[in-house]
Amino acid sequence: MIIFYFILLRSSILNQELQMIFEKLAISQIKKETEDTITVYFKVNQENKEIYDFKPGQYLTVKELINGEEIRRSYSISSSPQDGSLGITIKKIQNGGY
After folding, report:
1. How confident is the model at residue 37, as a pLDDT?
2. Under a CB-based contact definition with an 8 Å cutoff, are residues 24 and 3 in contact?
3. pTM, whole model, 2 decimals?
4. Residues 62-96, buried b or exposed e (16+ Cβ, 10 A)?
5. pLDDT of residue 25
6. What is the pLDDT of residue 19?
7. pLDDT (tens digit per residue) in 7-65
8. What are phi and psi of 51, to 5 degrees?
9. In this structure, how many other beta carbons lie within 10 angstroms of the beta carbon of residue 4?
């Protein structure tokens, strides 16, 4: 399971304060886009779906423990808010952690 850091505004719930949340989400799908690029879609709990609402241009930070070291990478959310999914597109880079 990947842990990610998702920055969102929940103004109706938190009186317009910015709330930063760590969540664990399972991957629902990995779609190969090109030879070196994939899109990763996450399973979003339907009961709390409104928590994961996002705006175009918003990003999230993926955090993973690799060889005992915490690695973080920020990715723009590549799915559309109207899609009802949460996805990021990742391009493989030489000597990249993930």
Report:
1. 92
2. yes
3. 0.72
4. beeeeeeeeeeeebebbbeeeeebbbbbbeeeeee
5. 80
6. 57
7. 443 444 445 555 566 677 888 899 999 999 999 998 887 777 777 788 888 888 888 88
8. -65, -30
9. 21
Asked whether 78 and 85 are in contact (CB, 8 A), the reply is no
In the block, residue with structure tokens 């005992």: 68
Which residues are registered as beta bridge partners of 29? 41
| Location of structure tokens 């109706």 | 12
The length of the chain in residues reads 98
Contacts of 23 by beta carbon, 8 Å cutoff, 6+ apart: 3, 4, 6
Helix (H) or strand (E) holding 12: helix 11-14
Pairing of strands 86-91, 69-76: unpaired
Residue 78 in contact with residue 89, Cβ under 8 Å?
yes
Structure token digits, residue 19: 């709330």
